Amino acid sequence: MSFLIFIAIVIVILVAIKEGISSKNSNIGFFGEISSDANMPYRKKDYLLTVTEKNFYTVLKKVADDHDCIVFAKVRLEDLIWIPKSTHNILKWRGYVRSRHIDFVLCEKKDIKPICAIELDDASHNTFSANKTDNLKDNILRTAGLPLLRIKASYEYDVTNLTQEIENKIYSQKGV
Question: What is the pTM of this model?
Fold first, then answer.
């Protein structure tokens, strides 16, 4: 009986190998490797930021330069916060931050320490679903101790006003 099971397993493996080798529609080999001549569907985007985000970034960069800071765009939320390994149900908590990003993060230049997260809120943030996500980001970052500034998307931004909003957000969170 065990000999028959052995023969059946060998046949299944041989069929799987044959299918993996002979499949002309598959770019993925039997062991999951992608062939070097694969016709992958990926294409480079023409830009990283939308026009609105680029306009905001230009002004934010001036503020950052004046305050010895650096601006990062589209930063994963997982890269900004951490969850203690001892946390009960850690996968649930990680799930809340996975696949989410912050539009801009202002960091101190000397040590790349995040000092303020910034979300640029356009009309897409007016939906129920987006509002739920926004509230979640607000709560996560408040709990983690990283100030989150929400800026209403606009055609133009004032350096002085933006500087004041950032300073108010940073110092109000520190309790200064």
Answer: 0.76
